[in-house]
Amino acid sequence: MGVFIVGGDRLGRIPHNLSLLGFDPVYHFRGRKKIAPGKLSIPEKTGLVIVLTDYVSHPIAAMIKEQAGKKNIPVVYAKRSWPQICQKLKL
Question: Could you state, in order of their start, the residue ranges of all structural domains in the chain?
Answer without folding.
Answer: 2-76
